[in-house]
Amino acid sequence: MQFRASMLALPLNQVRTSGMTFARPITDRYFEDYVEGAVHRFGTIKVDPDELIAFAKRFDPQTMHTDPEAAKNSPFGGIIASGWHTAGLMMRLYVEHYLTHVASLASPGLDELRWLKPVRPGDTLSVRVTVLKAVSSKSKPDRGVITSFIEVINQADEIVMTMKAINIIGKRPLAK
Questions:
Q1: Is pLDDT at 15 greater than 90 in this prediction?
Q2: For a designed S-S bond to 49, which of 88, 121, 122, 147 qualifies (C-beta 3.0 to 4.6 A apart)?
Q3: pTM for the predicted model, two decimal places
């Protein structure tokens, strides 16, 4: 199987939500809705074995990710997902459930990306996001910067990946 961008359009049976944890839906979410200290949990997404291998063959062609037989002799004792594939699955959940669909302006980057435990075919991942900081822009009053701590969690409730994301989010428009 070859990796294709269309694989990112997952069927609904592979992506589920655990309910909205914000006061407003993602289509009406602005800077003011991201409250420092708030914790949100979203998920789930299943790690498809064929997609895991296809992604790795295209983007991270190490045998621990591409060859089930050779991976048995790796330190992991079997095939594991590329960390970049795990990050892509996280991003799918982050965009679908956390990041505003109407006021996301940009991201200057991320910090402290860590892969803590291997992700295996068939794992089910969810995401827990903590709002670390919400700072209004001094130079552009129509927006602010949200810093979030993201944890990717497997079905055994083990944290498999963490990172800090920085997003520039627009403020709610003033009523006219």
A1: no
A2: 121
A3: 0.86
